[in-house]
Amino acid sequence: MVQVLAGQAARRTRIFDRSRTAPVTTARYILAFAAAVCLVCAVMVSGSAVALRDLQAANAEQERQRNVLFAAGLADPEEELSDADMAERFAAVRAVVVDLETGAELPEVDPASVDPLVEAGITDSSRAAPENLARVRRVERRSVVYLVEPGGALDAVVLPVRGQGLWSVLYGYLALEADLDTVRGLTFYEHKETPGLGGEVDNPNWKALWPGRQVFGTAGEPIIEVARAAAGPVAEDPHRVDGLAGATMTSRGVTNLLRFWLAENGFGPFLDRLRSEAAD
Predict the structure, then answer these.
(1) Residue 271 burial by CB count (10 A; 0-12/13-18/19+): exposed, middle or buried?
(2) Burial level of 36, CB count in 10 A (0-12/13-18/19+)?
(3) Which segments of the chain are extended strands (E)?
(4) CA nearest 129: which of 263, 270, 276?
(5) Nearest by Cα to 259 from 242, 235, 240, 278
């Protein structure tokens, strides 16, 4: 009897010991399994990012070219463009890097190597902007502009512009005719304004009001303005464009960002240099 009881006690002890060690083994297994899954996922994500990097860069460049063509009136947003069409139309466009402080072109710098928005966020490659209504905090020292030169002669200039709207920063392109005063087109490619209100900056009917407007006053200062209500026809009211109904802050934002980038802290020095070269 004593031996039987001792044997039962020994079995209970072994069962108890196993029940205590099981959770430890299970926890280690779960942690190891989770670590292995994380490692595999990290390798897959990293591999995908590396494999798709060139494709993403090519898509971003194509989208940039498309928006430049829209602003310059060389393509319609409703038009389906093949890669061949894009290449053919963009052949008349020359991208150049400019020093925003002096207005000088930097022909030794490859435009593909310059991202103005990235450089604006780096202290060494940007400068603090003076207080302005467009709420641009820092200005890149170098930017990329696009010269439309069919046949080699300047036909239009496309400038990247940005500034605060109501809810977001609006990013777009402004195209000026060869006289560097007349608007050829304006398009925004990124913003988070309210659909149906400030989002009407994307409305083709509103964008069609811009061509022919004049951006500079007689003293050379930018006076282009999005009016609070309806503006007159180009011949009678050349410096104003119809306001966006119910979107006062977005309308002011468009006015402010255009005036900022056309003035001395934006592309003013570059435009002055082009005028001086044309006069010579």
Answers:
(1) buried
(2) exposed
(3) 93-99, 126-128, 138-140, 142-148, 156-164, 169-177, 183-190, 225-226, 240-241
(4) 263
(5) 240
The amino acid at residue 238 is P
Collapse the DSSP code of 153 into the 3-class scheme (helix H, G, I; strand E, B; otherwise coil) and give the result. Answer: coil
Q: Please give the DSSP secondary-structure letter assigned to residue 218.
A: T
Output the six-digit token pair for 142.
């170098």
189-236 pLDDT, tens digit per residue, is 999 999 999 999 999 999 999 999 999 999 999 999 999 989 999 999
Please give the Cα distance from 198 to 212 (Å, whole number). Answer: 23
Between 56 and 40, the higher pLDDT residue: 40
Contact 267, 132 (CB under 8 A): no
Rounded to whole angstroms, the Cα distance separating 67 from 190 reads 11
